[in-house]
């Protein structure tokens, strides 16, 4: 009796074991089918160019993923060791990828480290996380995803799909369909999430002032972009002020951004590996602000009314008419009157002559008609040119190219933080590198803003337009910029690495560009500078020139020139008369 009982127990145990194995195989097969369906649906919707499979310290599952990947023709990359990661993927591959991460309690931290390294600067790509055990806390997992900036995350646990909603607090969100994780309607409302931003005084990029009611107004092109983004998504701003003109942050800026935990940086910073840049919203140029050409001395107006070619023509006419009068007098009257002929010639040119030849003949009529045309043309053209010059003033040529800086002795004052960047620019005239120097940043800011051009100053396109806006109502601006740029840069907002907002911010930034709101921000910043008193509209200084020496010396010069010619003619007549008596 004992033997059949023992056999029965053994058979029952074998049946139970077979049943458990069968259930386990069905469960594994069911999980595999679920993963296969999810990957297929994601591929069909997004058309991924590559699958990145991360399976740290779990070699058995690598084969499972490889078999799973055979369902499609999408290239794959399998990472099973953390030390095999040499560089970031965005440097070599198209980042239209789907990351598939197998995760459990043992490789939890290592998997996130691998995600951070591989998806550096592309952390907003799609991630499919497969949890192999139930002991992984979903809330802890999603908090880690938020800290690393992963927002497009789909988690498969016990054949159910999950994602998370970050606002107002991080919450686990079950999904009815796997593709629902891409529906980010909860990202349209940040529920007063606080954006910590550094604030400084760098008009027109970012600045503040108190209006007539004493209310603090914050303005600036970069700041308005960030403020519009924050207000659009129902968030709030927390400011920390830094005085960049009294202290240079070139060496410590990355540490400050990391330690202070800033969400976004609405100020100008040069490109650096310590932070990320948004999409460029403007391709800006770097210009030199230079003094405009000075007004030439008014006593020179008598000479510059005609060009050299015109003065040469006047001289040739003077000689031709003089010779003509002398020859006609000699042929008709047998007289050689040189001085009188010269006086008649000068009278003809200035259009104040009387009859040169007193006999009324057709030949003399033709000559007088010729003299009339010459005198009328020369006198009127000269007077018109001279009058227009006195009305509009004549100035020295403005500097148009970087080589024109050699015409001045002014140095090029640059901001301390930008000096190394400007010195690294190639293909500029050697004189530009020699003239650039670093001085007091506070003086640099004040002199450039007030257009006190004791030196040449460097500024971006927006800054140049901002400071030169003060000369809008000036008849003749005393400051200008060289149209040939030193270099070009892309304007962008700086964002810390691993920010979960960078993709959403870039999309919002494109809306601002397409709608024209960005150009309105630029115009508003110029007028806010005027309203704040940071800048002002300069006006022309009224100068009474009626009794000035510059006004009287021209008439005196003409009188003196006439007296000299008259004295010369008088002395010539005296000499000729004295010779005739002898």
How are strands sequenced across the largest beta sheet?
2-1-3-4-5-6-7
Mean pLDDT: 82
CATH superfamily of the largest domain: Periplasmic binding protein-like II
What is the second-level CATH architecture of the largest domain? 3-Layer(aba) Sandwich
Spans of at least 5 consecutive residues whose pLDDT stays below 50 are: 18-29
How many domains make up the 3D coordinates? 3
Number of helices: 17
Structural class: alpha/beta
Describe the largest sheet. 7 strands, mixed
How much strand content do the residues show? 15-25%
Number of strands: 19
**What overall form do the CA principal axes indicate?**
elongated
Radius of gyration: 42 Å
CATH topology grouping of the largest domain:
D-Maltodextrin-Binding Protein, domain 2
CATH class category name of the largest domain = Alpha Beta
**Helix coverage percent:** 40-55%
Terminal CA distance reads 181 Å
Please describe what this structure looks like.
The structure is a single chain. With 582 residues, this protein is α/β, with parallel strands linked by helices. The chain folds into three domains: 43-184, Response regulator (Rossmann fold, 3-Layer(aba) Sandwich); 189-281 and 492-542, D-Maltodextrin-Binding Protein, domain 2, CATH 3.40.190; 298-394 and 550-581. Helix content is 45%, strand content 16%. The protein contains 17 helices and 19 strands. It has a seven-stranded mixed β-sheet with strand order 2-1-3-4-5-6-7, with helices on both faces. Strands 13, 14, 15, 16, 17 and 18 form a six-stranded mixed β-sheet that branches. Helix 8 (308-333) packs across helix 9 and helix 9 packs across helix 10 (362-392). This is Ionotropic glutamate receptor C-terminal domain-containing protein. It is a multi-pass membrane protein. It is found in: Cell membrane. It comes from Stomoxys calcitrans.
């Amino acid at each position: 009796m004992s033997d059949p009982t023992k056999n029965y127990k053994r058979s029952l145990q074998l049946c139970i074991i077979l049943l458990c194995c069968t259930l386990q195989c069905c469960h594994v097969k069911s999980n595999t089918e679920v993963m296969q369906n999810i990957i297929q649906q994601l591929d069909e919707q997004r058309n991924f160019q590559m699958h990145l499979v991360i399976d740290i310290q779990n070699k058995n599952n690598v084969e499972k993923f490889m078999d799973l990947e055979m369902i499609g023709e999408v290239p794959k990359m399998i990472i099973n060791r953390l030390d095999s990661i040499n560089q970031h993927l965005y440097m070599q591959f198209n980042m239209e990828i789907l990351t598939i991460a197998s995760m459990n309690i043992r490789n939890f931290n290592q998997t996130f480290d691998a995600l951070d390294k591989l998806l550096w600067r592309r952390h907003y790509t799609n991630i499919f996380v497969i949890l192999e055990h139930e002991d992984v806390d979903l809330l802890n997992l999603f908090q880690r995803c938020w800290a690393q900036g992963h927002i497009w995350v789909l988690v498969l646990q016990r054949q159910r799909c999950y994602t998370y909603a970050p606002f107002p607090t991080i919450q686990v969100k079950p999904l009815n369909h796997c593709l629902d994780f891409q529906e980010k309607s909860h990202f349209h409302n940040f529920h007063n999430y606080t954006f910590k931003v550094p604030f400084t005084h760098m008009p027109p990029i970012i600045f503040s002032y108190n209006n007539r009611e004493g209310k603090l107004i914050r303005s600036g092109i970069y700041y308005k972009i960030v403020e519009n983004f924050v207000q659009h998504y129902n968030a709030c701003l927390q400011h920390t002020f830094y005085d960049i003109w009294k202290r240079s942050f070139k060496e410590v800026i990355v540490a400050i951004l990391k330690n202070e935990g800033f969400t976004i940086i609405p100020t100008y910073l040069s490109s650096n590996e310590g932070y990320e840049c948004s999409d460029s919203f403007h391709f800006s140029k770097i210009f030199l602000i230079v003094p405009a050409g000075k007004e030439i001395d008014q006593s020179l107006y008598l000479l510059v009314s005609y060009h050299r070619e015109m003065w040469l023509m006047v001289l040739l006419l003077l000689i031709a008419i003089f010779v003509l009068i002398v020859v006609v007098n000699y042929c008709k009257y047998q007289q050689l009157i040189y001085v009188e002929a010269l006086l008649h010639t000068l009278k003809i040119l200035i259009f104040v002559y009387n009859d040169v030849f007193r006999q009324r003949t057709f030949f003399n009529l033709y000559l007088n008609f010729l003299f009339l045309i010459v005198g009328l043309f020369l006198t009127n053209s000269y007077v018109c040119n001279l009058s227009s010059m006195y009305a509009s003033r004549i100035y020295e040529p403005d500097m148009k190219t970087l080589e024109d800086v050699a015409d001045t002795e002014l140095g090029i004052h640059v901001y301390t933080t930008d000096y190394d960047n400007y010195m690294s620019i190639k293909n500029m005239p050697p004189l530009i590198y020699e003239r650039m120097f670093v001085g007091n940043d506070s003086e640099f800011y004040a002199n450039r803003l007030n257009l006190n051009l004791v030196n040449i100053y460097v500024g971006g396109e927006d800054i140049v337009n901002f400071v030169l806006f003060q000369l809008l109502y000036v008849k003749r601006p005393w400051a200008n910029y060289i149209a040939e740029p030193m270099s070009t840069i892309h304007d962008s907002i700086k964002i810390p690495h691993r920010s979960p907002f960078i993709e959403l911010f870039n999309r919002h930034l494109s809306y601002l560009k397409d709608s024209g709101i960005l150009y309105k921000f630029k115009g508003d910043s110029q007028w806010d500078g005027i309203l704040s008193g940071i800048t002002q509209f300069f006006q022309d200084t009224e100068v009474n020139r009626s009794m000035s020496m510059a006004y009287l010396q021209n008439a005196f010069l003409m009188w003196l020139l006439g007296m000299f010619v008259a004295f010369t003619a008088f002395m010539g007549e005296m000499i000729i008369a004295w010779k005739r008596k002898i």
